[in-house]
Amino acid sequence: MAGLVKSDTEDFIDWWQHTVFYQIYPRSFMDSNGDGIGDLKGITSKLRYLADTGITATWLSPIFQSPMVDFGYDISDYKAIQPEYGTMQDFEELIDTAFELGIKVVLDFVPNHSSDQHEWFKKSAAREPGYEDFYVWHDGIVQENGTRVPPNNWPSVFYGSAWEWHEGREQYYLHQFTKEQPDLNYRNPKVVQAMDDVLLFWLNKGVAGFRIDAVNHLFEDESLKDEPLSGKTGDSLSYDYTEHIYSRDLPEVLEMIHHWRQLLDDFSAKHPERPTRIMMTEAYAGLTQLADYYEDSNGVRGSHLPFNFHFITDVKGDSDARDYVYNVEKWLIYMPRGHAANWVMGNHDNPRVASRFGPASVDAMNMLLLTLPGVAVTYNGEELGMVDYRELSWEDTVDPPARNVGEELYQEVSRDPVRTPFQWSSETNAGFSTATKTWLPVHPNYLELNLEAQKAANRSHYQVYKDLLELRKSAIMRVGRFNIEPLTRWVFAFKRSYPNFESIITVINVSDKEQLVDLSEFLSQPKKLVVEVSGVDSKYQPGQSLAASALLLAAREGLVCRLV
Ligand code: GLC
């Protein structure tokens, strides 16, 4: 295709502004030693797969030493590798191999809380000098009848009070997640210092940056006042019980983001031999807040990529074309000028695309994700259209929020179904492991749904995904202007264009019925559409010419075309 050549654009686009970040959930990606648990050597052995697919950046869910209560989001040593996952040497080999293959590695940084097994917590609980205020401690309230209760009504994200009594210290400590994940106290400069040290440790090992976990939970109002009730539920143990005005999204969060941005920028400036080090922040927060994370009203830059979860939280299987267009536009409108948009299609905390939108939507959703301007984030397995293992039994359930709500309700909140092992092949355990039992069961559909089969097939989700990544290399996809419109209630289209170059058009039918659309007005040029990428079940073949005035799209079909 005609297009800009790389040298035309490389000066004004940095690597992270248009990359695809492929999220690896290490526990479930590849097991190299047959213990049923994914590990670093397993990841290293599959980096070639990422490179062959066209992936140039990956973010890894936590790989650090952890009692694994929340599967690595409870860290007991921020500078050590979890032994089940391997050694520091394995990590160094992973980084070296990734570097050779042109893949940047981003680590998960979990600053809000440590594990209760971390030495900081043990020292804090023992009131060791220097550590007394590392965490958020409180005496609680002694009621008239003499019983002691927690300082306030805050519930934890994972169900139950956010306060736990510590027998040793004879005080309550705050935990916004499980009780084994005590909240660090960011009002204590020693905590900030200790965490800077952690970031520098990993930067010096050659990582490209960090995905920062649960960042909007970092600070709590010092008054520790009761939160107003939301009215959504009468269950005082449920996270929905209160409006989180004192425990989440405090203005101090932004200051900490600025602090970390400065640390990254300073490091990048001192070590220009490697690409810009970046941060991606995880916060399920309001649009204006997330826009401020990019850059606040004073022009201070923060997160390179505040994760945009709207395709997960605000668009559903029954959403129509207006909902999609609205959700895309609202991000672009609120994002301060001169920043890179980002689109997250899935992660280890939410149902998969095939389960949210139905298996027929897999290709169209990848087309949407990968042809929008800016950064795309893919959760491992989404390139194959892996499906949640919703039938996973209570006995096999290990996710803490699911265990907390009990056998009756676990399926409503369990994240285990989206974390089952990667389906590499039709061999035992989908080629993930040679163990007799894997940490989570493999989805039984692996015999048909696996990478090997999708590579061998004439057409497959994987091949569509790969074709889209190939298309993304073209300059028009990096710098092309963007406009999007609903064509009908159920079909929307968007265009990437650049003067004197062929435009790329993506058109998507989000309904369960066939739809006939006329694109002439949207294109406003009497030109021809040529199919660039079509879905697995499409009747259209790449290279085929289409009439823009009467385009028939099958249920849930997406098409990416070139305007010639
Ligand atoms: C983030 C992670 C999630 C984890 C939680 C607590 O939301 O994505 O998996 O359980 O933080 O660390």
Notes on the protein architecture:
The protein has 564 residues and is an alpha/beta fold. The chain has 3 domains: 20-112 and 188-464, TIM Barrel; 119-174, Oligo-1,6-glucosidase, domain 2, CATH 3.90.400.10; 480-563, Immunoglobulin-like (Sandwich), CATH 2.60.40.1180. 26% of the residues lie in helices and 17% in strands. The chain has 18 helices and 23 strands. Strand 16 and strand 17 form a beta hairpin. The relative contact order is 0.11. Residues 1-11 have low confidence and may be disordered. The structure holds alpha-D-glucopyranose.
What value does the Rg take, in angstroms? 24 Å
Helical stretch tally: 18
The portion of residues assigned to helices is: 25-40%
| Overall spatial form | globular
Biggest sheet statistics: 8 strands, parallel
**Annotated CATH architecture of the largest domain:** Alpha-Beta Barrel
Summarize the structure.
By secondary structure, the protein is of the alpha/beta class.
Task: Name some characteristics of this structure.
564 residues, alpha/beta, Oligo-1,6-glucosidase, domain 2, Immunoglobulin-like, 3 domains, 6-stranded antiparallel β-sheet, disordered N terminus, binds alpha-D-glucopyranose, Glyco_hydro_b, GH, signal, hydrolase, glycoprotein
Layout: helices, strands, pairs:
Blueprint: H1 6-9, E1 20-24, H2 40-45, H3 47-53, E2 57-60, E3 64-65, E4 77-81, H4 88-100, E5 104-109, H5 119-125, E6 137-138, E7 141-142, E8 148-149, E9 163-166, E10 171-174, H6 189-203, E11 209-212, H7 252-270, E12 278-281, H8 287-294, E13 305-306, H9 310-313, H10 321-334, E14 342-344, H11 353-356, H12 362-371, E15 375-379, H13 400-405, H14 410-413, H15 451-456, H16 461-472, H17 475-479, E16 481-486, E17 491-498, E18 501-509, E19 515-517, H18 520-523, E20 529-534, E21 545-546, E22 551-553, E23 558-563
Parallel strand pairs: 1-2, 1-15, 2-5, 5-11, 11-12, 12-13, 14-15
Antiparallel strand pairs: 3-4, 6-10, 7-8, 9-10, 16-17, 17-18, 18-23, 19-22, 20-21, 20-23
The structure holds alpha-D-glucopyranose.
